[in-house]
Description:
single chain; 15 helices; 0% strand
Amino acid sequence: MALLAQGIGGVSLPSLVMIAVALVLLYLGIARNYEPLLLLPIGAGCLLANLPLSPLVGDDGMLRQLYQMGVGNELFPLLIFIGIGALTDFGPLLENPRMVLLGAAGQFGIFLTLLAALLLGFSREEAASIGIIGAIDGPTSIYVSGILAPHLLAPITVAAYSYMSLVPIILPPIMKLLTTQKERRIRMPYSKRTISRRTRILFPIVVTIVVGTLVPFATPLIGMLMLGNLMKESAWSSA
C-alpha cells in the first residue's frame, strides 16, 4: 500500500498533461496512420517518461541508458541520417538542378524561428537550437540542440518530429487556401528521363567531398546522409 500511495502521490498536473499528449500522439500514429514510425516511439517514450516515479527515467533507468548510448554521444542522429539517405531519391534534383533553390528557400524558416526565439527571451544557443526546427529536420535538430542546448533536447525533439508528422493535417487547408481546384488537379510526372547509374553513384560521393571541404563541421551528418544514399543507389544499380 505504501508503494501504491507513493505512485499516486507522485502524480502531478504537468505529468498528466504530458500523458495526455502521449495518448494523442499514439492515437494519431495508430488510428489515423500519421507517420507511425515517428509518432509511436515518441508517444511511447513520452508516456513512459511521465509515469509517476517511473524507474525508467532514473540515473540507471532504460531511457537514461538509451540517452547516454545514442543521444549524448550523437550516435543516433548519425544512424538516422544513414536511414534518411537510404530512403531519399535525388533523381528529381539531378534531373532539374534548379530545384535546389526550393530547398535553399526553405531554410529561411530557420532564421525566422531563430529571430522569434530571441524575441521571446531565449539565449543565442537556445534560439539556434530551436531555429533548426524551422528546417523540418529532426536529426539535425537533435544534433544541434545536443551541442548548444542539451537541456532543451527533449522538447525540441518532440516539437520537430511531431509537427513533421502532422504535415498531413497542416498542409491540406493551406493548399486549398492558396490554390484553385483546377491547379490541384494538375498531374506532375515524377520523372521525365532516366538518370544514369554513374550519375546517381557519383552524386553522393561528390557532395560528401565538396561539403566536407567547404563546411567541415557538417561532415558527420552530410557524410552519413550521402553514405546511406550511396548504399541505396549501389544496391539499386546492382539489382
